[in-house]
Amino acid sequence: MSHLNLPPITGERFRSRRSVVMTSRGVVATSQPLAAQAGLRMLLAGGSAADAVIAAAAVLNVVEPMSTGIGGDAFALVYDAQTRTVRALNGSGRAPAALSRELFIERGLTSIPLTGMLPVTVPGAVDAWVELLSAYGRLPLAQVLAPAIEYADYGFPVSEIIARSWTLAEPKLAAHPDTARTYLPQGRAPRAGELFRQPGLARSLRLIAEGGRDAFYRGAIAAAIAATSARDGGVLTLEDLAAHHSTWDTPISVTYRGYTVYECPPNGQGITALMALNILEGFDLSAYTPASPEALHLQIEALRLAFADAAAYVADPAHAHVPTAWLLSGVYAAERRAQIDPQRALPHVHASTLPGGRDTVYVTAVDADGNAVSFINSLYMGFGSGVVAGDTGICLQNRGAGFVLDPQHPNCVAPGKRPYHTIIPCMVTCGDRLWASFGVMGGFMQPQGHVQMLVNMIDFGMNPQEALDAPRFELIDPYLNQDAVALEHDQAVVEALRERGHSIVDRQGMFGFGGGQIIVVDEAGVRHAGSDPRKDGCAVAY
Questions:
Q1: In this structure, what DSSP letter does residue 412 have?
Q2: Do the beta carbons of residue 74 and residue 377 sit within 8 Å?
Q3: Which of 139, 174, 453, 471 has its Cβ near the most Cβ atoms within 10 Å?
Q4: Edge-to-edge, what's the strand order for the sheet holding 516-521?
Q5: Hey, is 541 helix, strand or coil?
Q6: Does the pLDDT of residue 231 top 60, yes or no?
Q7: pLDDT of amino acid 11
Q8: Which residue in the list 228, 272, 360, 364 is annotated as catalytic?
Q9: Is residue 110 classed exposed, middle or buried when 0-12, 13-18 and 19+ CB atoms within 10 A define those classes?
Q10: Residue 374 in contact with residue 439, Cβ under 8 Å?
Q11: 308 near 482, Cβ under 8 Å?
Q12: How many helices (H) and strands (E) does the chain have?
């Protein structure tokens, strides 16, 4: 095996124009340079990987506000170098106590709206930040949040990709007065290079820095959120906010070609990636070239089958039975694998039968001691619900849109229930040694990106940067339709997959195929970090 613990290179391989960032000490990778530098500041100050990712996430709230923030949710996987164990943190919020299927029916709604206060669940991010720092941080919360407060107070120049995304969201932002005042102060989105300040968000972050989680869930911020909800037809209350808490879970995992791949358990969709990897374990993908129709076909089919089962069974396990053990079993994988025709796409994919009885930010860090955090924080859709709570500068997520109204479905909306969640961090060990901490952004693209990243590195021998840069495929809306797939590949590959029966479509929108960040640690302890140019990906180290 090579120094990176990757299989030897055989045949063709994607070559990146960007070098891997390497260090034997601390490294941070995320989707925006200012945020990455904030994380590095924590490491240089003696902070841990946990301090670094929270500092970066807080800055991302300021500089990439359409994607993330304290009005959203967060998940993390943590590798403890001393105990060589992995833990999962679920920082997703729950539905308000008054939110029920009956409420939507009474209001004449046949589906959950994407904007306004009705899809707003309790924002879980702040509690997750504090939990993570309490367990694994070394620095005071005020120090960790200081870079974000600085950028919110004094402003930052808006980068090009973020400016384009902001401009596309202008109609959504203009629909709510507090949101328009916060994000369209000149009646429009800021242009690339313009300095943008967020004094309301600076005040909120400063309150949290001084008062911890209670400043958000019980203080003036909570009062502003509850008042906005009451005014705008929502049902989120002070009591809902005060009752929130994150949960530490045992991660779920499978073994793929000798590597242990960890995901957070449901209510997240990380199980989708694990199911697909279990199916692919039975195929020799290394016999093909990375961009070959044969290799792509097998990965697409495995993910179509996995998404069908995730859509049918993933829900909040505190409120519904989720057959996790069955879905990750070898028997299940063999049954699903047997349905794949290597030469032809399945005409339609159905969920398996149980036996009886798109905007997000990702950040990862590895500190000098070898501790790692794989962290993801999101508002769900761009600018979430489109609602900012008063003058707090906090944009509220629309994660409740992840529920369904079918009373027979395990993911049907209910009071106090967590919805199906798209944001998923990933971590991989070789034995009990950390091998990789990574994530791919973009709604349902995330488990697809996890699978493609691992296949690129483990089956095709790519380094982390090559694995990120290589062309991807994306099942466009696999929760509802497992058939439509988009490709970054050349026309010859597109036509070859069409001949196999795949429904190939054009990917609409700016951030198709996701962004991503990764850190791989080799046997000598050298960290190899990659960052995705599909966004403003940046890896920094010392």
A1: B
A2: yes
A3: 453
A4: 21-23, 527-531, 516-521, 433-440, 426-430, 259-263, 252-256
A5: strand
A6: yes
A7: 44
A8: 360
A9: exposed
A10: yes
A11: yes
A12: 19, 21
**C-alpha triplet 169, 175, 178: angle, nearest 5°:** 100
Length of the chain: 542
How many C-beta atoms surround the C-beta of residue 11 within 10 A?
12
Q: How many angstroms separate the CA atoms of 340 and 332, rounded?
A: 13
pLDDT of residue 284: 97
**Element housing 485 (H / E):** strand 481-487
Can you tell me whether residue 499 is helix, strand or coil?
Answer: helix
Task: Give me the residue label for tokens 């049907």.
Answer: 412
Alpha-carbon span 351 to 299, nearest angstrom: 17
Q: SS3 of 112, please? A: coil
Q: Check residue 357 and give its pLDDT.
A: 45
Dump pLDDT digits (tens) for 283-317: 999 999 999 999 999 999 999 999 999 999 999 99
Would strands 516-521 and 433-440 be described as parallel, antiparallel, or unpaired? Answer: antiparallel
Q: Please, what is the angle between helix 33-44 and helix 49-63, to 10°?
A: 150
The 3 state secondary structure assigned to 284-348 is CHHHCCCCCHHHHHHHHHHHHHHHHHHHHHCCCCCCCCCCHHHHCCHHHHHHHHCCCECCECCCC
Residue type, 389: A
Please give the structure tokens belonging to residue 167. Answer: 């401009």
Q: What Rg do the C-alpha atoms of the chain give, in angstroms? A: 22
β-strands 195-196, 372-380 pairing: unpaired
Here the contacts of 280-285 (C-beta below 8 Å, separation 24 or greater) are 280/256, 280/451, 280/455, 281/256, 281/257, 281/333, 282/333, 282/334, 282/337, 283/337, 285/455, 285/459, 285/460
At 296, list the tokens.
């792509």
The lowest-confidence range among 13-22, 103-112, 113-122, 532-541 is 13-22
To the query of whether residue 247 is one of the catalytic residues in this protein, the response is no
